[in-house]
């Protein structure tokens, strides 16, 4: 229970359906730890703020369930924050939410559920799970509310995890959820949606990186380097590859007749390569560390729609097996813009999530 | 579901006889104890009667008792009050490493203000070595602050020995007695302490009231400013109903302490021998030290203490992983690690603290629940 409207409604719904439930809030990150990051806003609208715990506790009280705050700060830092920081420093663009789902929300949290004798966990994610008799597999499907669908962040879930997970909001659209929360008179019914990466205030991940490294006593590396064009001309200097992400246009500090975009970054040479929009197009890539969900794997080329970042509309492609069972090659029908290392690639067949992997 | 309370070191229920006294005071004695008139005098009489009751429990004279809002305020007043009264720009303070956060955080604040702080270690039983205190004292030392009984372990410190050393050196000794008062006999004269912190809600009085014993002749600067209450040591209109309840609780403790501590020690031993006998991979921290009769800190190897607290709560048994003031923290208990427990073992520790309403039947039911929970948690961690 994050204290938001979605998980609060889940709790109330399950109680109404007669389930015996226990409410828990995961304390993942101490917002006071990096005070230089806008401390005056530390109480509001960010994960694990005292206000959110207050709201979650109030909902638990209202629906009459036992409620606990469980502390996973150490695991969150080790398995989500540190990889996030390392990925950025390596010039990639990580998605911490997927790691958090894989290692915290559907792993450590499931262990805690086991500990207290709970058979299932339920969350406020917008996604659907169903068991398919024919294949004997738990399938993951997009939420009915396509605009809220969170399956892109859930591609790492294992069969074991899915077997024990309930997504009660998967068949509902957000306005219905709010309506239900209002009907049940939940105190959080009109609370705003959470946004961006929960532990990074205002989406300023570069400021977070600097503050975190300083807190860890790591000397900021000398990460400045040059901005070069695809044909090797040097256009200027930059303050570190972690300030750039593939497809970025703003903040390059270079004037040019044609709009310039970041095409790639290289943490070894500290070079940021820029070019025109057409240079961003990419027809194929390799996805690694695969996790298959609704199918067991691919033995032959399979048609799918592939989504390469959360806001991307999944594009038609063919998935080709490779010699390495942990990797596939994705070949788009039409080249796609900004295939970004560090992001996830999720394979869909309509609403069905076949599986996914990491863009290497 | 029935709920049983095994967390008396976090707080205690208000005793029925204390409640009765307090409610009648709340309803009838509403005067301001500083007022000249009849109503003020009635309040003042109650206030001073309570002061005599508190003083009697610790063998102090009533004029040496300063009422506060609780243990934390008493600790703060003692520590900042003594250091400020010393009036030295450069001073030194000695505390133990297993003090309550009210003392440790006060010491840390002094440190930020330029005062030197020594944090003394404890041995494997949680005891501060008095000779360590002697060695730590410097010419600029103005205060030694060592707790009487530890909140997580119940371990009782050799205060009388420490006080002799402090006295010889002419250094004031503050003792945080919050977890000792009402559980073991306290005699500030015999102990030889200069300041002694007390809290009402740890001995069946309500929250929001406590006291600091300040021995005659101890220099203490005020840390809050206002009227002339409490002999200019602690301003603010006195919380008369709370103080009256605290007084009644002290009187109750004085009357029942000997028999009750014997009863609780037997129940604690029953708990410990059952747990150690029936569950493998367990041990009692501070077991071989002199302890308060009601407290038992037990580790369960391979079990996550946080999960265990929740699992037991869902079975109707309220226990804790350590002090309520540090729950929710990610760090393993500073007390248990100071004893030399590994971080894993510290995280697998539970504190059971018994009290007036605890019965042998409750203890037996608790042991059954603990045994079942530990077996369950160990089974699933094998599969994980």
How would you sum up this structure in a few lines?
Chain A has 360 residues and is of the alpha+beta class. Chain A is built from 7 helices and 16 strands. Chain A is 25% helix and 27% strand.
Write the layout of secondary structure elements.
The complex is a heterodimer of chains A (360) and B (384).
Chain A (H helix, E strand, L loop, with lengths): L4 H12 L6 E5 L22 H14 L3 E5 L1 H17 L6 H20 L5 E2 L4 E6 L4 E6 L16 H5 L1 E2 L7 H10 L21 H11 L9 E5 L4 E5 L22 E6 L4 E5 L5 E12 L9 E6 L7 E7 L6 E10 L6 E6 L2 E8 L1
Parallel strand pairs in A: 1-2, 3-6, 7-10
Antiparallel strand pairs in A: 4-5, 5-16, 7-8, 9-10, 11-14, 11-16, 12-13, 12-15, 13-14, 15-16
Chain B lengths: L3 E2 L10 H13 L9 H21 L6 E4 L2 H16 L5 E5 L4 H12 L3 E5 L9 H7 L4 E5 L13 H11 L2 E5 L11 H4 L3 E5 L10 E5 L14 H4 L7 H39 L3 E3 L10 E6 L4 H10 L2 E2 L15 H5 L4 H5 L1 E5 L6 H24 L1
Parallel strand pairs in B: 1-11, 3-4, 3-5, 5-6, 6-7
Antiparallel strand pairs in B: 2-8, 7-8, 9-10, 10-12
Write up this protein.
The complex is a heterodimer of chains A (about 350) and B (about 375). Chain A has 3 domains: about 5-125 and about 170-205, HUPs (Rossmann fold, 3-Layer(aba) Sandwich), CATH 3.40.50; about 220-275, SH3 type barrels; about 280-360, Beta Barrel (Elongation Factor Tu (Ef-tu), domain 3), CATH 2.40.30. Helix content of chain A is about 25%, strand content about 25%. Chain A contains 7 helices and 16 strands. Chain A has helices at about 5-15, 50-65, 75-90, 95-115, 160-165, 175-185, 205-215, and strands spanning about 25, 65-70, 120, 125-130, 135-140, 165, 225-230, 235-240, 260-265, 270-275, 280-290, 300-305, 315-320, 330-335, 345-350, 350-360. A 6-stranded antiparallel beta barrel of chain A has the order 11-14-13-12-15-16. Chain A is globular, with a radius of gyration of 22 Å. The two termini of chain A are about 35 Å apart. With about 375 residues, chain B is of the alpha/beta class. Chain B has 2 domains: about 5-10 and about 255-384, Aspartate Aminotransferase, domain 1 (Alpha-Beta Complex), CATH 3.90.1150; about 15-250, Aspartate Aminotransferase, domain 2, CATH 3.40.640.10. Chain B is about 45% helix and about 15% strand. Chain B has a 7-stranded mixed β-sheet, sandwiched between helices. A 3-stranded antiparallel β-sheet of chain B has the order 9-10-12. Chain B has a two-stranded parallel ribbon with strand order 1-11. In chain B, helix 2 (about 40-60) packs parallel to helix 9 (about 240-280), helix 3 (about 70-85) runs parallel beside helix 4 (about 100-110) and helix 10 (about 305-315) crosses helix 13. The longest helix of chain B is centred in the C-terminal third of the chain and has 39 residues, at about 240-280. Chain B is globular. The model of chain B has no long low-confidence stretch (mean pLDDT about 95). Classes of the chains: A alpha+beta (about 350), B alpha/beta (about 375). Chains A and B meet through strand 2 and helix 4 of A and helix 10 and helix 13 of B.
């Amino acid at each position: 229970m994050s204290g938001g409207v979605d998980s609060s409604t889940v709790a109330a719904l399950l109680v109404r359906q007669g389930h015996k439930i226990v409410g828990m809030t995961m304390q993942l990150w101490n917002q006071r730890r990096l005070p230089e990051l806008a401390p005056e806003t530390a109480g509001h609208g960010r994960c694990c703020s005292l206000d959110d715990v207050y709201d979650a506790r109030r909902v638990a009280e209202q629906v009459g369930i036992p409620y606990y705050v469980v502390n996973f700060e150490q695991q969150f830092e080790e398995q989500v924050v540190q990889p996030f920081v390392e990925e950025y420093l390596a010039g990639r663009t990580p998605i911490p939410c997927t790691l958090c789902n894989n290692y915290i929300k559907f792993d450590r949290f499931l262990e805690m559920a086991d500990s207290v004798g709970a058979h299932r966990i339920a969350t406020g994610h917008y996604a659907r799970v169903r068991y398919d008799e024919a294949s004997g597999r738990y399938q993951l499907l997009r939420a009915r509310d396509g605009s809220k669908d969170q399956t892109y962040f859930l591609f790492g879930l294992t069969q074991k995890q899915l077997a024990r997970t309930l997504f009660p909001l998967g068949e509902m659209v957000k306005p219905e959820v709010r309506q239900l929360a209002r009907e049940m008179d939940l105190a959080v019914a009109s609370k705003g949606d959470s946004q961006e990466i929960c532990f990074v205030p205002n989406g300023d991940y570069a400021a977070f990186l600097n503050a975190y490294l300083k807190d860890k006593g790591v000397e900021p590396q000398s990460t400045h380097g040059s901005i070069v064009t695809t044909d090797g001309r040097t256009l200027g200097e930059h303050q570190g590859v972690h300030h750039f992400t593939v497809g970025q246009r703003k903040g390059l500090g270079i004037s040019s007749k044609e709009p310039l975009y970041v095409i790639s970054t290289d943490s070894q040479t500290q070079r940021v390569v820029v070019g025109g929009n057409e240079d961003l197009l990419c027809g194929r890539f390799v996805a690694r560390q695969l996790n298959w969900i609704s199918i067991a794997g691919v033995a032959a080329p399979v048609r799918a729609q592939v989504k390469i970042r959360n806001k991307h509309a999944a594009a038609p492609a063919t998935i080709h097996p490779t010699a390495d069972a942990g990797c596939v090659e994705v070949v788009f029908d039409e080249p796609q813009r900004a295939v970004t290392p560090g992001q996830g690639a999720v394979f869909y067949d309509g609403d069905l999530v076949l599986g996914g992997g990491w863009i290497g | 579901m029935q709920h049983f309370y095994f967390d008396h070191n976090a707080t205690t229920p208000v005793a029925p006889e204390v409640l009765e006294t307090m409610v009648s005071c709340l309803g009838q004695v509403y005067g301001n104890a500083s007022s000249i008139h009849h109503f003020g005098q009635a309040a003042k009489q109650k206030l001073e009667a309570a002061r005599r009751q508190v003083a009697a429990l610790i063998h102090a004279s009533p004029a040496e008792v300063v009422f506060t809002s609780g243990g934390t305020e008493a600790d703060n007043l003692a520590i900042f009050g003594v250091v400020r009264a010393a009036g030295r720009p450069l001073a030194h303070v000695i505390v133990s490493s297993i003090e309550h956060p009210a003392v440790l955080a006060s010491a840390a604040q002094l440190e930020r203000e330029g005062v030197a702080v020594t944090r003394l270690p404890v041995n494997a039983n949680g005891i501060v070595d008095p000779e360590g205190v002697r060695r730590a004292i410097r010419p600029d030392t103005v205060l030694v602050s060592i707790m009487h009984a530890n909140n997580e372990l119940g371990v009782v410190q050799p205060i009388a020995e420490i006080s002799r050393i402090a006295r010889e050196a002419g250094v004031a000794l503050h003792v945080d007695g919050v977890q000792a008062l009402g559980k073991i006999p306290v005699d500030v004269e015999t102990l030889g302490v200069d300041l002694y912190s007390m809290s009402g809600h740890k001995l069946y009085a309500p929250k929001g009231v406590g006291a600091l014993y300040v021995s005659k002749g101890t220099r203490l600067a005020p840390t809050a400013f206002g009227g002339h209450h409490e002999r200019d040591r602690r301003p603010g209109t006195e919380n008369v109903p709370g103080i009256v309840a605290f007084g009644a609780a002290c009187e109750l403790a004085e009357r029942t302490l000997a028999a009750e501590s014997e009863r609780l020690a037997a129940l604690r031993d029953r708990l410990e021998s059952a747990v150690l006998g029936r569950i493998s991979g367990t041990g009692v921290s501070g077991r071989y030290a002199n302890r308060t009769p009601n407290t038992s800190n037990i580790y369960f190897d391979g079990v996550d203490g946080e999960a265990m607290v929740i699992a037991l709560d869902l079975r109707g048994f309220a226990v804790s992983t350590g002090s309520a003031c540090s729950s929710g923290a990610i760090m393993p208990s500073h007390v248990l690690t100071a004893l030399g427990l590994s971080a894993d073992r510290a995280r697998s520790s539970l504190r059971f603290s018994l009290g007036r309403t605890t019965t042998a039947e409750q203890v037996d039911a608790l042991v059954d629940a603990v045994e079942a929970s530990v077996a369950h948690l160990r089974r699933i961690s094998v599969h994980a």
